[in-house]
Write a structure and sequence with these properties.
alpha/beta; Rossmann fold; 2 domains; seven-stranded parallel sheet; 14 helices; 13 strands; 35% helix; Glycosyl transferase; transferase; glycosyltransferase activity; Glyco_trans_1
């Protein structure tokens, strides 16, 4: 099968530092190739892949100080995708709804994985209009705001099994990994750690849109002696941070579509303490690989009980549910559903 993977251009594939969507695209692309398929990847020029790379800009847009208009390269990319469309058995988009008006008018089978939140008011009318566009969710919870979408499947993310090293022992600190923004609630993570009298390491990027929030709301909290803010980190540093942590704190305050960092922690053998929002109850087995909590008091109690969680079980749970070969097989089943059979093509 010849498969096109169409990535956002904001980060490389895989990202050099923070980035969830492009990271998943990288894992999926390489696994599809490993399973014997040909893949053409549309992505930024600094991407690293065994696929046939078609680059629409030399560098990921977020890290390119000269890139002003981020939409223009995406429009050019869609033009290039459909210029080559006849070469593909299926086109797998990861750019939200940007391509819908074009894809509706083309004949090559296509699929879109929706990676973001769907509880935005503008999306209801859009998906009522484009109810013919085949889409995949990354959790069942993600679907709830948009019942009119043309859902094909839910495909949970997966990671290569050797990406992170299993750590049998922790160094006793708590970890927060991700992005500084109001919905991620790093302030709550600091409060949990403070009340539990536990050290906290925070590895997070600060987007330009969140710089004022960081300066006004979060930076003053970093004076706490138990808090170590290390900033944005790469994959090697991530493995060390997560692997040596006693637990990952995930105190989100939004309908999280998936939460890749949760399975990254589990791959290291690190339990997760997460708020009951969005996909969390789907991803985590409560009291088996961590604790799913509803408020601050429950989170603090979970920290105090974290030694009840077997780190080997966390790794085993990851291997059972969230490996990349399973993710690729799930997508291949959807591709096969969407590609017409020879009989259908002739009719």
């Amino acid at each position: 099968m010849h498969i096109a993977q169409v990535s956002p251009l904001y980060e490389s594939v895989p990202p050099k530092q923070y980035g969830g969507t492009e990271r998943v695209i990288a894992y999926l692309t390489e696994e599809l190739i490993r399973q014997g398929h040909r893949v053409t990847l549309f992505a930024s020029g600094d991407s690293e892949t065994e696929a046939d790379l078609v680059s629409m800009c030399p560098h990921s847009l977020r890290l390119d100080d000269k890139a002003v208009d981020h939409l223009a390269p995406h429009v050019l990319m869609l033009e290039e995708v459909y210029r080559r469309a006849d070469a593909f058995d299926i086109i797998h988009f990861h750019v939200d709804y940007l391509h819908y008006p074009v894809s509706r008018r083309e004949t090559t089978p296509h699929l879109t994985t929706l990676h973001g939140r769907l509880d935005l008011p503008e999306l209801g009318p859009l998906y009522r209009e484009f109810s013919d566009m085949p889409v995949v969710s990354i959790s069942d919870a993600q679907r709830s705001p948009i019942s009119t979408a043309n859902w094909q499947a839910t495909v949970y993310h997966g990671l290569p099994p050797d990406l992170f090293t299993y750590r049998e022992q922790s160094e006793g600190y708590l970890a927060f990994l991700g992005r500084i923004s109001p919905e991620k609630r790093v302030d709550t993570a600091i409060e949990i750690a403070s009340r539990a009298h536990a050290p906290l390491k925070i590895a997070a990027k600060v987007d330009p849109a969140d710089e004022a929030y960081f300066a006004n709301e979060i930076e003053p909290l970093l004076d706490n002696a138990n808090v170590d803010f290390v900033g944005e980190i790469d994959d090697i540093e991530k493995g060390d941070l997560l692997g040596h942590a006693a637990a990952l704190l995930f105190p989100i305050d939004w309908p999280e579509p998936f939460g890749l960092v949760m399975i990254e922690a589990l791959a290291c053998g690190t339990p997760v303490i997460a708020y009951r929002r969005g996909s969390v109850p789907e991803v985590l087995a409560d009291e088996r690989v961590g604790f799913v909590v509803s408020d601050l008091d429950e989170a603090v109690e979970a920290v105090q009980r974290i030694d009840e969680i077997d780190r080997h079980v966390c790794r085993q749970y990851f291997e059972e549910r969230f490996q990349v070969d399973r993710m690729a097989r799930d997508y291949l089943r959807v591709y096969e559903q969407l590609i017409p059979s020879p009989a259908q093509t002739l009719s």
